[in-house]
Amino acid sequence: MVDHLSENTNRSDNSQAQAKPITVQPAPPRKNVSIQKPDPSSGGKKPGKNHIYVRETEGKVETTRRVLGFVLMALFAVLPWLTWNGEQAILFNIIDQRFRIFGMTLWPQDLTILAWIFMISAFALFLVTTLFGRVWCGFTCPQTTWTFIFMWFERKIEGSRHQRMKLDERKMDADKFWRKFAKHTAWIVVALLTSMTFVGYFTDIRTLFTDFWILQSSAWATGSVLFFTFATYGNAGWMREIMCTHMCPYARFQAAMFDKDTYIVAYDVERGEPRGPRKRKVDPATIGKGDCIDCNLCVQVCPTGIDIRNGLQYECINCGACIDACDDVMEKMGYPKKLISFTTQSRLEGGQTKVFRFKSVGYGLALLALTALLVVDILLRVPLEFDVIRDRNTLYRENQEGWVENVYTLRVINKTQETQTYRVNVEGVEDMQLLGVDEIQLAPEMTETIPVTIAVDPYFLEQPMVEINFTIEAVDDGRIRKTVRSNFIYQ
Protein backbone atom coordinates (compact mmCIF):
# COMPACT_ATOMS: atom_id res chain seq x y z
CA MET A 1 0.00 0.00 0.00
CA VAL A 2 2.84 2.36 0.92
CA ASP A 3 4.62 1.55 -2.31
CA HIS A 4 1.45 2.15 -4.29
CA LEU A 5 0.89 5.57 -2.69
CA SER A 6 4.54 6.48 -3.18
CA GLU A 7 4.35 5.55 -6.84
CA ASN A 8 1.19 7.61 -7.35
CA THR A 9 2.75 10.54 -5.51
CA ASN A 10 5.83 10.39 -7.71
CA ARG A 11 3.66 10.24 -10.81
CA SER A 12 1.64 13.23 -9.64
CA ASP A 13 4.75 15.23 -8.80
CA ASN A 14 6.36 14.46 -12.13
CA SER A 15 3.20 15.31 -14.05
CA GLN A 16 2.86 18.64 -12.27
CA ALA A 17 6.48 19.46 -12.93
CA GLN A 18 5.94 18.81 -16.63
CA ALA A 19 2.52 20.33 -17.14
CA LYS A 20 3.91 23.46 -18.81
CA PRO A 21 7.06 22.54 -20.76
CA ILE A 22 7.54 26.05 -22.17
CA THR A 23 8.06 27.51 -18.70
CA VAL A 24 11.72 28.42 -18.61
CA GLN A 25 13.32 27.53 -15.31
CA PRO A 26 16.83 26.98 -13.99
CA ALA A 27 18.27 23.56 -14.65
CA PRO A 28 18.56 21.09 -11.75
CA PRO A 29 21.97 19.82 -10.70
CA ARG A 30 23.71 18.30 -13.70
CA LYS A 31 23.77 14.55 -13.73
CA ASN A 32 26.56 14.16 -16.22
CA VAL A 33 28.98 16.08 -14.03
CA SER A 34 31.81 13.95 -12.80
CA ILE A 35 32.05 14.31 -9.01
CA GLN A 36 34.72 11.91 -7.94
CA LYS A 37 36.49 11.46 -4.65
CA PRO A 38 40.16 12.38 -4.74
CA ASP A 39 42.33 9.51 -5.77
CA PRO A 40 45.44 9.22 -3.57
CA SER A 41 47.39 7.93 -6.54
CA SER A 42 46.62 11.09 -8.51
CA GLY A 43 48.01 13.47 -5.97
CA GLY A 44 44.59 14.41 -4.62
CA LYS A 45 43.51 15.96 -7.93
CA LYS A 46 40.14 15.32 -9.47
CA PRO A 47 38.14 16.55 -12.46
CA GLY A 48 36.46 19.92 -12.03
CA LYS A 49 33.00 19.55 -10.55
CA ASN A 50 31.53 21.87 -13.16
CA HIS A 51 33.10 20.17 -16.14
CA ILE A 52 30.65 18.43 -18.45
CA TYR A 53 31.77 15.24 -20.15
CA VAL A 54 29.50 15.05 -23.19
CA ARG A 55 28.78 11.63 -24.60
CA GLU A 56 28.85 11.15 -28.37
CA THR A 57 25.56 10.38 -30.07
CA GLU A 58 24.42 9.33 -33.53
CA GLY A 59 21.09 9.73 -35.26
CA LYS A 60 19.04 11.71 -37.76
CA VAL A 61 19.12 14.95 -35.79
CA GLU A 62 22.86 14.72 -35.24
CA THR A 63 23.42 13.98 -38.94
CA THR A 64 21.33 17.00 -39.91
CA ARG A 65 23.27 19.23 -37.54
CA ARG A 66 26.61 17.95 -38.86
CA VAL A 67 25.64 18.45 -42.51
CA LEU A 68 24.31 21.94 -41.85
CA GLY A 69 27.37 22.81 -39.79
CA PHE A 70 29.66 21.56 -42.55
CA VAL A 71 27.86 23.65 -45.17
CA LEU A 72 28.02 26.79 -43.05
CA MET A 73 31.67 26.18 -42.18
CA ALA A 74 32.48 25.71 -45.86
CA LEU A 75 30.74 28.97 -46.75
CA PHE A 76 32.54 30.79 -43.96
CA ALA A 77 35.92 29.49 -45.13
CA VAL A 78 35.39 29.94 -48.89
CA LEU A 79 33.55 33.27 -49.22
CA PRO A 80 36.46 35.61 -48.43
CA TRP A 81 38.61 33.85 -51.06
CA LEU A 82 36.16 34.51 -53.91
CA THR A 83 36.94 37.32 -56.36
CA TRP A 84 34.77 39.74 -58.31
CA ASN A 85 36.24 41.84 -61.13
CA GLY A 86 39.71 40.94 -59.89
CA GLU A 87 39.01 42.09 -56.31
CA GLN A 88 38.02 40.26 -53.15
CA ALA A 89 34.29 39.63 -53.54
CA ILE A 90 33.37 40.21 -49.89
CA LEU A 91 35.42 42.77 -47.97
CA PHE A 92 34.27 44.91 -45.04
CA ASN A 93 36.97 47.56 -45.05
CA ILE A 94 36.30 49.43 -41.82
CA ILE A 95 39.40 51.61 -42.03
CA ASP A 96 38.48 52.99 -45.47
CA GLN A 97 34.75 52.88 -44.57
CA ARG A 98 33.55 50.80 -47.48
CA PHE A 99 31.88 47.39 -47.63
CA ARG A 100 32.26 45.38 -50.82
CA ILE A 101 29.66 42.66 -51.39
CA PHE A 102 30.28 41.09 -54.80
CA GLY A 103 29.25 43.75 -57.35
CA MET A 104 28.03 46.31 -54.81
CA THR A 105 30.12 48.64 -52.67
CA LEU A 106 28.47 50.22 -49.63
CA TRP A 107 29.73 53.48 -48.17
CA PRO A 108 28.77 55.33 -44.97
CA GLN A 109 26.15 57.14 -47.05
CA ASP A 110 24.48 53.76 -47.66
CA LEU A 111 23.79 53.23 -43.96
CA THR A 112 20.10 52.58 -44.62
CA ILE A 113 20.90 49.41 -46.59
CA LEU A 114 22.94 48.04 -43.69
CA ALA A 115 20.15 49.04 -41.30
CA TRP A 116 17.58 47.10 -43.37
CA ILE A 117 19.87 44.05 -43.42
CA PHE A 118 20.29 44.10 -39.62
CA MET A 119 16.55 44.55 -39.03
CA ILE A 120 15.71 41.75 -41.47
CA SER A 121 18.15 39.46 -39.65
CA ALA A 122 16.56 40.33 -36.30
CA PHE A 123 12.98 39.73 -37.42
CA ALA A 124 14.00 36.52 -39.21
CA LEU A 125 15.43 35.31 -35.89
CA PHE A 126 12.22 36.32 -34.09
CA LEU A 127 10.06 34.47 -36.62
CA VAL A 128 12.17 31.31 -36.55
CA THR A 129 12.21 31.36 -32.75
CA THR A 130 8.44 31.77 -32.57
CA LEU A 131 7.92 28.80 -34.89
CA PHE A 132 10.79 26.46 -34.09
CA GLY A 133 12.29 27.59 -30.80
CA ARG A 134 16.07 27.83 -30.42
CA VAL A 135 17.01 25.97 -33.58
CA TRP A 136 19.44 28.79 -34.37
CA CYS A 137 21.35 27.96 -31.20
CA GLY A 138 21.34 24.21 -31.75
CA PHE A 139 22.14 24.06 -35.46
CA THR A 140 23.67 27.28 -36.83
CA CYS A 141 25.09 29.35 -33.97
CA PRO A 142 28.89 29.72 -34.37
CA GLN A 143 29.37 29.02 -30.66
CA THR A 144 27.59 25.67 -31.02
CA THR A 145 29.31 24.78 -34.29
CA TRP A 146 32.81 25.46 -33.01
CA THR A 147 32.07 23.77 -29.68
CA PHE A 148 31.10 20.56 -31.45
CA ILE A 149 34.25 20.82 -33.61
CA PHE A 150 36.41 21.13 -30.51
CA MET A 151 34.52 18.24 -28.88
CA TRP A 152 35.23 16.10 -31.97
CA PHE A 153 38.99 16.65 -31.57
CA GLU A 154 38.62 15.94 -27.86
CA ARG A 155 36.95 12.58 -28.48
CA LYS A 156 39.42 11.56 -31.17
CA ILE A 157 42.45 12.32 -29.00
CA GLU A 158 41.29 11.59 -25.43
CA GLY A 159 38.66 8.94 -26.11
CA SER A 160 35.05 8.41 -25.11
CA ARG A 161 33.25 10.12 -22.24
CA HIS A 162 34.27 7.45 -19.74
CA GLN A 163 37.87 7.46 -20.98
CA ARG A 164 38.08 11.25 -20.65
CA MET A 165 36.76 11.09 -17.10
CA LYS A 166 39.34 8.46 -16.18
CA LEU A 167 42.09 10.43 -17.93
CA ASP A 168 41.34 13.56 -15.90
CA GLU A 169 41.44 11.54 -12.66
CA ARG A 170 44.95 10.27 -13.36
CA LYS A 171 48.07 12.06 -12.33
CA MET A 172 50.16 13.55 -15.12
CA ASP A 173 52.17 10.94 -17.02
CA ALA A 174 53.58 10.70 -20.54
CA ASP A 175 50.35 9.36 -22.06
CA LYS A 176 48.20 12.01 -20.42
CA PHE A 177 50.66 14.77 -21.31
CA TRP A 178 50.80 14.01 -25.03
CA ARG A 179 47.02 13.62 -25.25
CA LYS A 180 46.42 16.94 -23.53
CA PHE A 181 49.15 18.59 -25.58
CA ALA A 182 47.76 17.20 -28.86
CA LYS A 183 44.22 18.28 -27.97
CA HIS A 184 45.13 21.84 -27.10
CA THR A 185 47.42 22.10 -30.11
CA ALA A 186 44.53 21.05 -32.37
CA TRP A 187 42.26 23.57 -30.65
CA ILE A 188 44.76 26.38 -31.13
CA VAL A 189 45.29 25.51 -34.80
CA VAL A 190 41.54 25.51 -35.46
CA ALA A 191 41.13 28.75 -33.50
CA LEU A 192 43.98 30.40 -35.41
CA LEU A 193 42.63 29.38 -38.83
CA THR A 194 39.17 30.52 -37.77
CA SER A 195 40.52 33.86 -36.59
CA MET A 196 42.54 34.49 -39.74
CA THR A 197 39.55 33.64 -41.92
CA PHE A 198 37.31 35.96 -39.90
CA VAL A 199 39.79 38.84 -40.03
CA GLY A 200 40.08 38.12 -43.76
CA TYR A 201 36.57 39.48 -44.16
CA PHE A 202 37.89 42.90 -43.05
CA THR A 203 41.23 43.02 -44.87
CA ASP A 204 42.73 41.46 -47.97
CA ILE A 205 42.80 37.78 -47.00
CA ARG A 206 45.54 36.76 -49.43
CA THR A 207 47.85 39.43 -48.11
CA LEU A 208 46.93 38.55 -44.52
CA PHE A 209 47.73 34.84 -44.91
CA THR A 210 51.11 35.75 -46.38
CA ASP A 211 52.15 38.68 -44.20
CA PHE A 212 51.01 37.18 -40.91
CA TRP A 213 53.42 34.26 -41.08
CA ILE A 214 56.38 36.44 -42.05
CA LEU A 215 55.50 39.01 -39.36
CA GLN A 216 54.71 41.73 -41.91
CA SER A 217 51.00 42.21 -41.24
CA SER A 218 49.76 45.49 -39.75
CA ALA A 219 49.47 45.95 -36.02
CA TRP A 220 45.67 45.96 -36.04
CA ALA A 221 45.50 42.82 -38.24
CA THR A 222 47.99 40.96 -36.04
CA GLY A 223 46.22 42.08 -32.86
CA SER A 224 42.82 41.09 -34.26
CA VAL A 225 44.04 37.63 -35.28
CA LEU A 226 45.56 36.99 -31.86
CA PHE A 227 42.49 38.33 -30.02
CA PHE A 228 39.99 36.23 -31.96
CA THR A 229 42.24 33.18 -31.71
CA PHE A 230 42.21 33.54 -27.94
CA ALA A 231 38.43 34.17 -27.94
CA THR A 232 37.68 31.11 -30.11
CA TYR A 233 39.99 28.88 -28.10
CA GLY A 234 38.48 30.06 -24.82
CA ASN A 235 34.83 30.07 -25.89
CA ALA A 236 34.72 26.71 -27.70
CA GLY A 237 37.39 24.91 -25.69
CA TRP A 238 36.91 26.06 -22.11
CA MET A 239 33.74 28.09 -21.62
CA ARG A 240 31.43 26.13 -23.93
CA GLU A 241 28.04 25.90 -22.19
CA ILE A 242 28.86 28.93 -20.03
CA MET A 243 28.52 31.10 -23.14
CA CYS A 244 25.01 29.71 -23.71
CA THR A 245 23.79 29.64 -20.12
CA HIS A 246 25.33 32.79 -18.65
CA MET A 247 26.57 35.15 -21.36
CA CYS A 248 24.23 34.85 -24.35
CA PRO A 249 21.34 37.36 -24.04
CA TYR A 250 19.23 35.36 -26.50
CA ALA A 251 18.75 32.63 -23.87
CA ARG A 252 17.21 35.20 -21.53
CA PHE A 253 14.62 36.82 -23.77
CA GLN A 254 13.68 33.77 -25.86
CA ALA A 255 10.76 32.94 -23.55
CA ALA A 256 9.03 36.15 -24.65
CA MET A 257 8.71 34.66 -28.16
CA PHE A 258 7.59 31.18 -27.07
CA ASP A 259 3.98 30.08 -26.88
CA LYS A 260 2.07 26.79 -26.82
CA ASP A 261 2.60 26.31 -30.56
CA THR A 262 6.36 26.83 -30.59
CA TYR A 263 8.35 23.73 -31.47
CA ILE A 264 10.65 22.76 -28.62
CA VAL A 265 12.62 19.73 -27.52
CA ALA A 266 10.28 18.17 -24.96
CA TYR A 267 9.84 14.99 -22.96
CA ASP A 268 6.45 13.23 -23.08
CA VAL A 269 5.62 13.00 -19.39
CA GLU A 270 2.38 11.06 -19.80
CA ARG A 271 4.13 8.36 -21.73
CA GLY A 272 7.45 8.29 -19.89
CA GLU A 273 6.45 8.44 -16.22
CA PRO A 274 6.91 6.85 -13.82
CA ARG A 275 10.40 6.08 -15.02
CA GLY A 276 12.55 3.20 -13.88
CA PRO A 277 14.97 0.49 -15.05
CA ARG A 278 13.80 -2.82 -16.43
CA LYS A 279 14.89 -5.63 -18.74
CA ARG A 280 14.64 -5.39 -22.50
CA LYS A 281 11.35 -6.04 -24.28
CA VAL A 282 9.44 -5.80 -21.00
CA ASP A 283 6.01 -4.26 -21.41
CA PRO A 284 6.07 -1.23 -19.10
CA ALA A 285 2.35 -1.61 -18.37
CA THR A 286 2.97 -4.97 -16.71
CA ILE A 287 5.35 -3.44 -14.16
CA GLY A 288 3.49 -0.18 -13.64
CA LYS A 289 6.14 1.96 -15.29
CA GLY A 290 6.34 4.40 -18.16
CA ASP A 291 8.56 4.05 -21.21
CA CYS A 292 11.50 5.95 -19.69
CA ILE A 293 14.02 3.48 -18.30
CA ASP A 294 15.95 6.25 -16.49
CA CYS A 295 19.20 5.48 -18.31
CA ASN A 296 20.27 9.16 -18.16
CA LEU A 297 21.73 9.04 -21.67
CA CYS A 298 19.67 12.11 -22.56
CA VAL A 299 21.58 13.96 -19.85
CA GLN A 300 24.99 12.60 -20.81
CA VAL A 301 24.73 13.75 -24.43
CA CYS A 302 23.48 17.26 -23.56
CA PRO A 303 26.18 19.88 -24.24
CA THR A 304 24.76 22.18 -21.55
CA GLY A 305 24.30 19.42 -18.95
CA ILE A 306 20.54 19.67 -18.34
CA ASP A 307 17.90 16.99 -17.87
CA ILE A 308 15.17 17.65 -20.43
CA ARG A 309 12.81 15.47 -18.37
CA ASN A 310 12.61 18.29 -15.84
CA GLY A 311 10.92 20.57 -18.37
CA LEU A 312 12.23 23.15 -20.78
CA GLN A 313 15.01 25.26 -19.29
CA TYR A 314 16.62 28.35 -20.77
CA GLU A 315 19.90 26.40 -20.98
CA CYS A 316 18.40 24.11 -23.65
CA ILE A 317 19.79 25.02 -27.08
CA ASN A 318 17.48 22.70 -29.07
CA CYS A 319 20.40 20.72 -30.53
CA GLY A 320 18.31 17.54 -30.36
CA ALA A 321 21.14 15.33 -29.07
CA CYS A 322 18.84 13.94 -26.39
CA ILE A 323 16.31 12.99 -29.10
CA ASP A 324 18.80 10.77 -30.90
CA ALA A 325 20.01 9.19 -27.65
CA CYS A 326 16.47 8.45 -26.47
CA ASP A 327 15.33 7.13 -29.86
CA ASP A 328 18.25 4.71 -29.86
CA VAL A 329 17.31 3.42 -26.40
CA MET A 330 13.63 3.10 -27.32
CA GLU A 331 14.54 1.12 -30.41
CA LYS A 332 16.67 -1.29 -28.37
CA MET A 333 13.90 -1.67 -25.79
CA GLY A 334 11.32 -2.34 -28.48
CA TYR A 335 9.29 0.78 -27.58
CA PRO A 336 8.00 3.48 -29.95
CA LYS A 337 10.41 6.34 -30.59
CA LYS A 338 9.82 10.06 -29.91
CA LEU A 339 9.64 9.85 -26.14
CA ILE A 340 11.75 12.99 -26.48
CA SER A 341 11.04 14.91 -29.66
CA PHE A 342 10.62 18.24 -31.39
CA THR A 343 7.03 19.01 -30.49
CA THR A 344 4.77 21.71 -29.05
CA GLN A 345 2.92 22.10 -25.80
CA SER A 346 -0.37 22.07 -27.71
CA ARG A 347 0.46 18.67 -29.19
CA LEU A 348 1.57 17.30 -25.83
CA GLU A 349 -1.78 18.36 -24.41
CA GLY A 350 -3.59 16.52 -27.19
CA GLY A 351 -4.38 19.51 -29.39
CA GLN A 352 -3.22 20.68 -32.82
CA THR A 353 -0.30 22.97 -33.52
CA LYS A 354 -1.23 26.26 -35.14
CA VAL A 355 1.44 27.60 -37.47
CA PHE A 356 -0.48 30.73 -38.50
CA ARG A 357 -1.15 32.73 -35.35
CA PHE A 358 -1.02 36.39 -34.45
CA LYS A 359 2.62 36.41 -33.37
CA SER A 360 4.01 34.40 -36.27
CA VAL A 361 1.93 36.25 -38.87
CA GLY A 362 3.01 39.59 -37.39
CA TYR A 363 6.69 38.71 -37.54
CA GLY A 364 6.21 37.33 -41.06
CA LEU A 365 4.53 40.49 -42.34
CA ALA A 366 7.19 42.67 -40.73
CA LEU A 367 9.89 40.54 -42.36
CA LEU A 368 8.25 40.86 -45.79
CA ALA A 369 7.89 44.63 -45.39
CA LEU A 370 11.51 45.10 -44.38
CA THR A 371 12.68 42.88 -47.24
CA ALA A 372 10.63 44.93 -49.70
CA LEU A 373 12.14 48.15 -48.35
CA LEU A 374 15.63 46.70 -48.73
CA VAL A 375 14.97 45.70 -52.34
CA VAL A 376 13.54 49.14 -53.16
CA ASP A 377 16.49 50.85 -51.49
CA ILE A 378 18.96 48.79 -53.52
CA LEU A 379 17.09 49.36 -56.80
CA LEU A 380 16.88 53.13 -56.26
CA ARG A 381 20.46 53.40 -55.09
CA VAL A 382 22.73 55.46 -57.35
CA PRO A 383 26.35 54.18 -57.15
CA LEU A 384 27.64 57.73 -57.16
CA GLU A 385 28.20 60.34 -54.47
CA PHE A 386 28.23 64.00 -55.54
CA ASP A 387 28.59 67.02 -53.24
CA VAL A 388 28.88 70.69 -54.12
CA ILE A 389 30.57 73.03 -51.64
CA ARG A 390 30.39 76.73 -52.34
CA ASP A 391 33.43 78.90 -51.47
CA ARG A 392 32.37 80.93 -48.43
CA ASN A 393 35.50 83.05 -48.23
CA THR A 394 34.67 85.02 -51.38
CA LEU A 395 30.94 85.38 -52.04
CA TYR A 396 31.48 86.56 -55.61
CA ARG A 397 33.91 88.38 -57.87
CA GLU A 398 33.90 90.12 -61.26
CA ASN A 399 36.28 89.08 -64.03
CA GLN A 400 37.87 91.31 -66.66
CA GLU A 401 34.85 90.97 -68.92
CA GLY A 402 32.50 92.16 -66.18
CA TRP A 403 30.91 88.79 -65.61
CA VAL A 404 30.10 87.61 -62.08
CA GLU A 405 31.96 84.51 -60.85
CA ASN A 406 31.30 82.09 -57.97
CA VAL A 407 33.79 79.38 -56.98
CA TYR A 408 32.67 75.85 -56.01
CA THR A 409 34.36 72.62 -54.96
CA LEU A 410 32.94 69.41 -56.42
CA ARG A 411 33.46 66.17 -54.48
CA VAL A 412 32.79 63.02 -56.52
CA ILE A 413 32.91 59.39 -55.30
CA ASN A 414 32.79 56.49 -57.73
CA LYS A 415 30.85 53.89 -55.73
CA THR A 416 31.00 51.28 -58.49
CA GLN A 417 33.70 48.66 -59.02
CA GLU A 418 34.50 49.88 -62.54
CA THR A 419 36.35 52.92 -63.88
CA GLN A 420 33.83 55.64 -64.77
CA THR A 421 33.97 58.88 -66.77
CA TYR A 422 31.59 61.58 -65.54
CA ARG A 423 30.40 64.74 -67.26
CA VAL A 424 29.40 67.80 -65.22
CA ASN A 425 26.72 70.29 -66.29
CA VAL A 426 25.19 73.29 -64.57
CA GLU A 427 21.78 74.90 -65.17
CA GLY A 428 19.69 77.66 -63.64
CA VAL A 429 20.66 80.92 -65.36
CA GLU A 430 20.72 81.75 -69.07
CA ASP A 431 24.15 81.82 -70.73
CA MET A 432 25.88 80.30 -67.68
CA GLN A 433 29.45 79.10 -68.19
CA LEU A 434 31.38 76.42 -66.30
CA LEU A 435 35.07 77.25 -66.19
CA GLY A 436 37.38 74.36 -65.34
CA VAL A 437 37.18 70.59 -65.67
CA ASP A 438 33.82 69.38 -66.95
CA GLU A 439 34.78 65.69 -67.32
CA ILE A 440 36.20 63.50 -64.57
CA GLN A 441 37.57 59.95 -64.81
CA LEU A 442 37.60 57.98 -61.58
CA ALA A 443 38.91 54.52 -60.78
CA PRO A 444 36.67 52.13 -58.83
CA GLU A 445 35.86 53.25 -55.27
CA MET A 446 37.91 56.43 -55.65
CA THR A 447 37.19 59.98 -54.49
CA GLU A 448 38.10 63.16 -56.39
CA THR A 449 37.80 66.80 -55.32
CA ILE A 450 37.98 69.49 -58.03
CA PRO A 451 37.45 73.27 -58.02
CA VAL A 452 35.25 74.87 -60.69
CA THR A 453 34.13 78.39 -61.41
CA ILE A 454 30.68 79.46 -62.64
CA ALA A 455 30.51 82.72 -64.61
CA VAL A 456 27.27 84.57 -65.41
CA ASP A 457 26.55 87.77 -67.33
CA PRO A 458 25.05 90.15 -64.71
CA TYR A 459 22.44 91.15 -67.28
CA PHE A 460 20.68 87.82 -66.60
CA LEU A 461 20.84 88.13 -62.80
CA GLU A 462 17.52 89.55 -61.64
CA GLN A 463 18.04 88.69 -57.96
CA PRO A 464 21.05 88.87 -55.61
CA MET A 465 20.87 85.07 -55.13
CA VAL A 466 19.54 82.48 -57.57
CA GLU A 467 19.26 78.71 -57.36
CA ILE A 468 21.36 76.60 -59.74
CA ASN A 469 21.63 72.85 -60.33
CA PHE A 470 24.82 70.87 -60.80
CA THR A 471 24.29 67.58 -62.63
CA ILE A 472 26.85 64.82 -62.99
CA GLU A 473 26.27 61.81 -65.25
CA ALA A 474 28.28 58.76 -66.22
CA VAL A 475 29.20 58.92 -69.90
CA ASP A 476 28.73 55.18 -70.45
CA ASP A 477 25.68 54.67 -68.25
CA GLY A 478 22.93 57.29 -68.18
CA ARG A 479 21.32 55.61 -65.15
CA ILE A 480 24.21 56.78 -62.99
CA ARG A 481 23.16 60.39 -62.62
CA LYS A 482 22.82 62.79 -59.74
CA THR A 483 21.72 66.42 -59.36
CA VAL A 484 22.69 68.73 -56.49
CA ARG A 485 21.24 72.16 -55.80
CA SER A 486 23.34 75.17 -54.85
CA ASN A 487 23.13 78.97 -54.88
CA PHE A 488 24.76 81.61 -57.09
CA ILE A 489 25.30 84.91 -55.26
CA TYR A 490 25.58 88.39 -56.72
CA GLN A 491 25.73 91.48 -54.46
Automatic annotation (TrEMBL):
Q: Kindly list the residue ranges recorded as spanning the membrane.
A: 67-84, 113-133, 181-201, 213-233, 361-380
Q: Which GO terms describe its molecular function?
A: 4 iron, 4 sulfur cluster binding; metal ion binding
Q: Where in the sequence is the signal peptide annotated?
A: none
Does Metal-binding appear among the keywords?
yes
Q: Which domain of life is it from?
A: Bacteria
Per UniProt, the keywords (alphabetical) are:
4Fe-4S, Electron transport, Iron, Iron-sulfur, Membrane, Metal-binding, Transmembrane, Transmembrane helix, Transport
Question: Per the record, which residues fall in region Disordered?
Answer: 1-50
UniProt feature, compositional bias: Polar residues: 7-18
Entries under SUPFAM superfamilies matching the protein? 4Fe-4S ferredoxins (SSF54862)
UniProt cross-references to InterPro entries, sorted A to Z? 4Fe4S_Fe-S-bd (IPR017896), 4Fe4S_Fe_S_CS (IPR017900), Cyt_c_oxidase_cbb3_FixG (IPR014116), Electron_Trans/Redox (IPR051684), FixG_C (IPR032879), Ig-like_fold (IPR013783)
List, alphabetically, the GO terms of the cellular component aspect: plasma membrane
Show where the 4Fe-4S ferredoxin-type domain sits: 283-311
Presence of keyword Membrane: yes
List the PANTHER family hit by this protein, alphabetically: FERREDOXIN-TYPE PROTEIN NAPH (PTHR30176:SF3)
Which NCBIfam families does the entry mention?
Answer: ccoG_rdxA_fixG
What name appears for this protein in its UniProt entry?
A: Cytochrome c oxidase accessory protein CcoG
* Species the sequence originates in: Aliidiomarina shirensis
